[in-house]
Design goal:
The complex is a heterotrimer of chains A (344), B (291) and C (338). By secondary structure, chain A is an all-alpha fold. Chain A contains 14 helices and two strands; from the N terminus they run αααββααααααααααα. Classes of the chains: A mainly alpha (344), B mainly alpha (291), C alpha/beta (338).
Chain lengths: 344, 291, 338
C-alpha cells in the first residue's frame, strides 16, 4: 500500500501542473484585449494616448506565450492570483475571506447528507421492493431530478416568503453588528462556531437559522445520491455468500445487517463520499447564489456574471486543488477501510 | 436473428415490468411529442427566430397567469411559450452534449487501451486533470470566455464532459482484452485494431449508451444552472433555465413570481426525471451487474 | 440398515418452488431421506439438480420467493413450524453448514477469529475472551498452523485450503449435531480436497456428528459417504447405501455417472459421457425427467413419470426399465472381463 500512496503523491504535482495548463490556456483564449481590460482598474488609466500600449508592455502581454506562462506560474507560486475587480482586492485575499462561509455550509450540510442518505439507503435495501422502499425511492428520485436552484427557490418560497422562518443571507443586521463589535473574537470566521466560542447563543441561533435553507436544499438533493449508492451496494452485499454464512450461524437479522452487511456495503459509499464532498463544495456556487450567502461559490458566480476573469480563474484553481487533495485523502482512507486493499 | 429478437422481447418485457420504467418512458414520449408539436402549440412569429420568446409586455414586473398567457409573464416574456419551446432546447442540449462527449470519450478510451504504455499513461493523466476541475465551475469559466449563448454552453459542457466515458471504455476494453474470445481472435492472428473495432467495441457500446441516457438529465440541469446564474443562454432564449433566471430578480417577492419558478421548474424536473428513470431502467434491464 | 434406529434428521416430500419472472421453477420436487446419528449421507447430482437448494431449505435460508413444502423434522421438532427465533437457535448450533467457495463465504472485512467467535458467543454464551481462546483452539484442531496468529488475520490472507479449514472450524465451533457440507471441496486443489475430507472424517469421529455431504463428485462420495441420495432434476432417482450404489447401480443416470469416472484398471477407448445436458428447470420434459438423455428410454418414459420404488431392501430406484439396465450392465461387465 505504501507504493500506492507514493504513486498517488508523485502524481499530485503532475495533476496540479496540468490544472495550471488548462487554466492558463483559458487565459490565453481570452486574448490580449480582454486581458488588458481586466488590468484596467479605472477609466482614468486609459486617458492618455499610449495607455493601452504601456499596459501591454507592463503586464508583458506581447511576450511569447511560454514566457507569459512562466511569469504567471511564478506569480501563482508566490500566492498571487491577480487582481479581483469585483472585490477590489487581490484575488487570493478575496477568496481567503470567502472560504470560511463555504466551509461552514459544507461542514454542516455533510452531516445530514451522509447520515441521512446512508440511513435511508440501508432501510431501502432491507425492504427491497416493499412499499417503504418504493416510497423512499420515489421521493429520492424526484430529489435526484431536481435542479438545486429550483429546489432552493422552492425552499425560499415556503420557509421565507410564506412562513418567514428561515431568511436568506448570512446573518441578521443585529448579529452582524455584534460581530463587528470589539468584544467579538473571530476564531474561525465561521459564525456558528465563533458564536459558541464567544458564548453568544443568540448569534448562533441566528447564524443557524440562515443555514437551514441551504442545508435543506443540499441534503435533499444529495440524499438521493447517497441513498442510491447505499441501497444498491446493500442489495449487492445482501446477496453475498458470507451473508448466507452469517445467517447459517444463527445470527439475528439485526446482526447480519448491521454488522456483516453494512460494513461491506459502506465501502463503495466511502469511495464516492470524497467526490461528493467536492461536488458539494462546487454545488455551493448555486446554493449560495440562491440563498445570497457570501461564500466562495457566490463569489465565483458573481465573478462569472461580471466577467471578472482573474477572480473566476482563481476560484477554479482553488476548487481544483481542494478536489485533488480531497480525492487523495479519500483514496488513502479507502485503503484503510477495506483490508483487501490494505495489503496489496 | 429470431433468437436475438426473442431476447430483445424478453428484455423489453423485463424493462416494462417496473412501473418506474413505464413512468419514465411515458414522460419521455410526452416530452418528445411536445417538442415535435412546439410550432403547432406556440406558432413563432413570422420571420423571427422561434427560439426567441416573443415579448408580451414591455413592463419588467411579472404578470400572473391569465387566459392569454396561461403560465404568466416574467421579464416581459410569455412563460408558456418558453416552456414549450424550451423542451426543444432541453433535447438539443442533452442529446448533442452527451452524444458528442461520449464519442470523444470512446475515441480517447479506445486509443488509450489500444496503445497502452506511455500513450495510455498520458491520456489517462489528461483525463484525471480534466476531472480535477469541478464540472460546474469549469463549464462556467468556459462559457464566460466563449461568451453567452446556448451553442457556447454546449461546447463548454462537451469540453469538460468526456472523461467518464473515456475511463469506462478504457476499463471495459482492458477487461475484454483478457477474455477468452478476444484471446482466441488474437491467437488466430487478427490484428489488435480490428479486434477492438469488431469484437470489443460492440460489446462495450451498450454501457456507454446507458451512461449517455443517464447523463442527459444532469446535463440539462447544469446548462439550466448556467443560464440561471446568468452565464448561459442569452436573455429571452426559450430555455427553462433562462426563464427561471428571471425569477432571481424577484427573489424577495416570490409570492409575485411563483409561476416563473413553478412551470419551467416542473417541466425541468419531469424531463430530468424521465431520463433518469429511463437510464436507470435500461441499466437494470440490460446490465444488472452495473448496479 | 438401521431401520430401527431413530433418524436425527428426517426430510419427507420436501418441495422447493421458486416464483421467478419467467415462471415457476421446481428446484426440489418431493424428496425424502433420513440422516441417522453419526453417519454421513451423500447427496450427489449435477449442478442445478436441487441438491444445494435442498440444504438451504432445511436451514430455511432461502429468499422470500421460495416456496418450501413437505416436512423436515430434526430430533422430533418440525423445522418449518419453528419461529424464526427458535430456528436461529438451531442454525449454527445444532445444524451447521459449510459452503463451496470459502473465499466468498467468509466475510472479507472481519478477521477469521471474529467470525468464529460470534457463533460461540451467541450460542454458548461465552465471554469474548473465552470465545477467542476457543477460536484459537478450533483453528488448531482443523490443522491451521500458528493459530494464535491466524486468528487475527483476514480471510484473504489465508490460502484456499486454509480458508475452508477456517470455515470448518467455524461450523464446528458450537459442536453441532448435523453438519451440512455443500460442495466443500469443489473449489479446492485435488491434494487439498483429500486433506479436507480426511479432516472432516477425523472430526466426525471426534465429535460424533452426522454429515450431509452435498457434491457432484462421486469420488468424494466414495471417500466419505455411508449412504447416498442421487438427485436428478429436483427428484431422488436412487437412494441406497454407498457400497450397493457403487457395486450395483440400478438407475441409468447413476450408472452413467459411474461410467463417466475415468478408470485406470481397465482400458477405455474413450471416456463415457452422459449425452445431452441437464434440462432447463422451467421446461422439464414430460414423463421421466431423465428421458432426454437416457439410452434406455422407451415410450412409457415420455408419458408418465416412474415412482421411487424399493427394488431391494433399502434400495430405492425411480425407473421403469431396471431389467434393461441390468442386462446392459451384464454385457459391459462381460466385455470388461474379455
Amino acid at each position: 500500500m505504501t507504493a500506492y500512496i507514493i504513486r498517488r503523491l508523485l502524481l499530485l504535482p503532475v495533476i496540479l501542473f496540468g490544472i495550471t495548463l488548462i487554466i492558463f490556456s483559458m487565459i490565453w483564449m481570452l486574448g490580449p484585449d480582454r486581458l488588458l481590460a481586466t488590468y484596467v482598474k479605472s477609466p482614468e488609466a486609459l486617458k492618455s494616448e499610449d495607455a493601452a500600449e504601456r499596459l501591454i508592455k507592463k503586464y508583458g502581454l506581447d511576450e511569447p506565450t511560454i514566457v507569459q506562462y512562466f511569469k504567471w506560474i511564478g506569480n501563482i507560486a508566490q500566492g498571487d492570483l491577480g487582481y479581483s475587480n469585483i472585490a477590489k482586492k487581490p484575488v487570493q485575499e478575496a477568496i481567503a475571506e470567502r472560504i470560511p462561509y463555504t466551509l461552514e455550509l459544507a461542514m454542516w450540510a455533510i452531516i445530514p447528507v451522509i447520515a441521512g442518505g446512508i440511513w435511508l439507503g440501508v432501510i431501502s435495501g432491507i425492504h427491497h421492493n416493499q412499499p417503504l422502499d418504493h416510497g423512499i425511492r420515489i421521493v429520492s428520485l424526484i430529489g435526484w431530478s431536481m435542479p438545486d436552484f429550483v429546489f432552493g427557490l422552492l425552499v425560499l418560497l415556503l420557509f421565507y416568503t410564506i412562513l418567514g422562518w428561515f431568511p436568506p443571507g448570512y446573518l441578521s443586521y443585529e448579529s452582524e453588528a455584534i460581530l463587528r463589535s470589539a468584544e467579538w473574537t473571530k476564531y474561525t470566521h465561521m459564525a456558528t462556531i465563533d458564536s459558541i466560542l464567544n458564548l453568544n447563543f443568540s448569534v448562533f441561533i441566528d447564524a443557524f437559522r440562515h443555514l437551514i435553507g441551504p442545508i435543506l436544499t443540499i441534503s435533499y438533493l444529495w440524499w438521493a445520491y447517497v441513498l442510491r449508492i447505499t441501497r444498491s451496494s446493500m442489495l449487492e452485499v445482501l446477496k453475498k455468500d458470507y451473508i448466507r454464512t452469517a445467517r447459517a450461524k444463527g445470527l439475528s437479522e439485526n446482526v447480519v445487517i448491521n454488522k456483516h452487511a453494512r460494513k461491506n456495503a459502506l465501502i463503495p459509499v466511502v469511495t464516492v463520499a470524497g467526490g461528493m464532498l467536492v461536488s458539494l463544495l462546487a454545488g455551493v456556487v448555486i446554493v449560495e447564489s440562491v440563498f445570497n450567502r457570501p461564500g466562495l461559490g457566490r463569489f465565483t458566480a458573481d465573478a462569472a456574471t461580471q466577467l471578472d476573469y482573474f477572480s473566476i480563474l482563481g476560484s477554479a484553481m482553488v476548487f481544483s486543488v481542494i478536489l485533488v487533495l480531497v480525492n487523495l485523502i479519500v483514496d488513502i482512507s479507502y485503503a484503510f477501510i477495506d483490508p483487501r486493499i490494505r495489503l496489496s | 436473428m429470431s433468437e436475438k429478437r426473442t431476447e430483445f422481447r424478453r428484455m423489453m418485457r423485463r424493462y416494462l415490468k417496473s412501473p418506474t420504467n413505464v413512468l419514465g418512458t411515458v414522460l419521455l414520449i410526452f416530452f418528445i411529442i411536445i417538442a415535435i408539436l412546439a410550432p403547432v402549440i406556440c406558432p413563432p412569429q413570422a420571420g423571427q427566430d422561434p427560439f426567441k420568446i416573443p415579448i408580451a409586455t414591455w413592463s419588467a414586473a411579472p404578470v400572473a397567469p391569465s387566459a392569454d398567457h396561461p403560465f404568466g409573464i416574467i421579464g416581459g416574456r410569455d412563460i408558456f411559450y418558453g416552456v414549450i419551446w424550451g423542451t426543444r432546447s432541453a433535447f438539443k442540449i442533452g442529446l448533442v452534449v452527451s452524444l458528442i462527449s461520449a464519442f470523444i470519450g470512446v475515441i480517447v478510451g479506445s486509443i488509450s487501451s489500444y496503445f497502452g504504455g506511455w500513450i495510455d499513461e498520458i491520456l489517462m493523466r489528461i483525463t484525471d486533470i480534466f476531472m480535477s476541475i469541478p464540472f460546474l465551475v469549469a463549464a462556467m469559466i468556459m462559457t464566460t470566455i466563449l461568451g453567452k449563448g446556448l451553442g457556447n454552453v454546449m461546447i463548454a459542457l462537451i469540453i469538460f464532459g468526456w472523461m467518464r466515458v473515456a475511463r469506462l471504455i478504457r476499463g471495459n476494453i482492458l477487461q475484454a482484452k483478457s477474455e477468452q474470445y478476444v484471446l482466441a481472435a488474437k491467437a488466430l492472428g487478427i490484428k489488435d485494431g480490428k479486434i477492438i473495432i469488431k469484437h470489443i467495441l460492440p460489446n462495450t457500446i451498450f454501457p456507454v449508451l446507458v451512461q449517455v441516457s443517464m447523463r442527459i438529465g444532469s446535463l440539462v440541469i447544469t446548462a439550466a444552472a448556467l443560464s440561471f446564474l446568468g452565464v448561459g443562454a442569452e436573455p429571452g432564449y426559450a430555455d427553462w433555465g433562462t426563464i427561471l433566471s428571471y425569477s432571481r430578480n424577484w427573489m424577495t417577492e416570490l409570492s409575485k413570481s411563483w409561476f416563473a419558478i413553478l412551470y419551467p421548474g416542473t417541466a425541468m424536473v419531469l424531463f430530468v426525471l424521465a431520463w433518469n428513470l429511463v437510464g436507470d431502467g435500461l441499466r437494470d434491464t440490460f446490465d444488472p451487474k452495473m448496479k | 440398515m438401521n431401520k430401527d434406529k431413530k433418524p436425527l434428521l428426517e426430510v419427507k416430500d420436501l418441495t422447493t418452488y421458486f416464483h421467478t419472472e419467467d415462471g415457476l421453477v421446481k428446484a426440489v420436487d418431493g424428496i425424502s431421506y433420513e440422516v441417522f446419528p453419526g453417519e454421513t449421507l451423500g447427496i450427489v447430482g449435477e449442478s442445478g439438480c436441487g441438491k444445494s437448494v435442498n440444504a438451504l431449505s432445511i436451514m430455511r435460508l432461502l429468499e422470500s420467493n421460495a416456496d418450501v413444502g413437505g416436512s423436515i423434522s430434526f430430533e422430533g421438532q418440525s423445522l418449518p413450524e419453528l419461529s424464526e427465533r427458535q430456528m436461529r437457535g438451531i442454525r449454527g448450533n445444532d445444524i451447521a453448514m459449510i459452503f463451496q467457495e470459502p473465499m466468498t463465504a467468509l466475510n472479507p472485512v472481519f478477521t477469521v477469529g471474529d467470525q468464529i467467535e460470534e457463533a460461540v458467543i451467541l450460542h454458548q454464551k461465552k465471554s469474548r475472551d473465552e470465545a477467542h481462546q476457543m477460536a484459537i483452539e478450533m483453528l488448531r484442531k482443523v490443522g491451521i498452523p500458528e493459530p494464535t496468529k491466524r486468528v487475527d488475520e483476514y480471510p484473504h490472507e489465508l490460502s484456499g485450503g486454509m480458508r475452508q479449514r477456517a470455515m470448518i472450524a467455524m461450523a464446528l465451533s458450537c459442536n453441532p449435531r448435523v453438519l451440512i457440507a455443500d460442495e466443500p471441496t469443489t473449489a479446492l486443489d485435488v491434494t487439498i480436497q483429500a486433506q479436507i475430507l480426511e479432516l472432516m472424517k477425523s472430526l466426525q469421529d471426534e465429535y460424533g456428528m452426522s454429515i450431509v455431504m452435498i457434491t457432484h463428485d462421486l469420488g468424494v462420495i466414495a471417500e466419505v459417504a455411508d449412504r447416498v441420495v442421487v438427485m436428478y432434476a429436483g427428484k431422488v432417482v436412487e437412494y441406497t447405501d454407498a457400497l450397493t450404489l457403487f457395486k450395483n447401480p440400478k438407475h441409468p443416470y447413476t450408472w452413467g455417472l459411474l461410467n463417466a469416472i475415468p478408470r485406470l484398471d481397465i482400458e477405455q477407448e474413450s471416456l463415457y459421457n452422459i449425452p445431452g445436458v441437464v434440462p432447463d428447470p422451467l421446461h422439464f420434459p414430460k414423463g421421466c425427467k431423465f428421458n432426454t438423455r437416457c439410452s434406455f428410454c422407451g415410450e412409457k418414459c415420455k408419458q408418465e413419470e416412474p415412482e421411487l420404488i424399493e427394488v431391494e431392501e433399502n434400495h430405492f430406484v425411480r425407473c421403469f426399465f431396471i431389467e434393461k439396465v441390468e442386462k446392459e450392465k451384464a454385457k459391459t461387465k462381460a466385455g470388461e472381463n474379455l
